């Protein structure tokens, strides 16, 4: 059985990698700045309840 701290770490690592992936993809495609701002906010949302 996985402890809550381990589950949090795995979730955080996954979400962080996804945020980084989308940020690079958007940056390479030179999309609108407001979209990039939303992606940057993704890290903040990982610490907040949905």
Description:
This protein has 50 residues and is an all-alpha fold. It has one domain. Helix content is 74%, strand content 0%. It is built from 3 helices and no strands. The protein has helices at residues 4-28, 33-40, 42-45. The longest helix is centred in the first third of the chain and has 25 residues, at 4-28. The protein is elongated, with a radius of gyration of 13 Å. The relative contact order is 0.15. This is Dihydrolipoyllysine-residue succinyltransferase component of 2-oxoglutarate dehydrogenase complex 1, mitochondrial-like. It comes from Iris pallida.
How confident overall, as mean pLDDT? Answer: 71
- Helices, by number, come to 3
- Overall form: elongated
Q: What is the element string, with H for helices and E for strands?
A: HHH
Detail the poorly predicted runs: none
Work out the strand percent.
under 5%
- Count of individual domains: 1
- In terms of structural class, how would the helical and strand content be classed? mainly alpha
Helical content (DSSP H or I, runs of 4+): over 70%
Number of beta-strand segments: 0
Gyration radius, rounded: 13 Å
Q: Please summarize the sheet with the most strands.
A: none
Q: What is the straight-line distance between the termini? A: 24 Å
List the helices and strands and how they pair.
Elements: H1 4-28, H2 33-40, H3 42-45
Organism: Iris pallida (Sweet iris)
Protein name: Dihydrolipoyllysine-residue succinyltransferase component of 2-oxoglutarate dehydrogenase complex 1, mitochondrial-like
């Amino acid at each position: 059985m996985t402890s809550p701290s381990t589950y949090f770490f795995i979730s955080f690592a996954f979400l962080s990698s996804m945020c980084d992936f989308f940020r690079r993809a958007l940056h390479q495609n030179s999309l609108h700045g407001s979209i990039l701002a939303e992606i940057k906010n993704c890290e903040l949302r990982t610490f907040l309840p949905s």
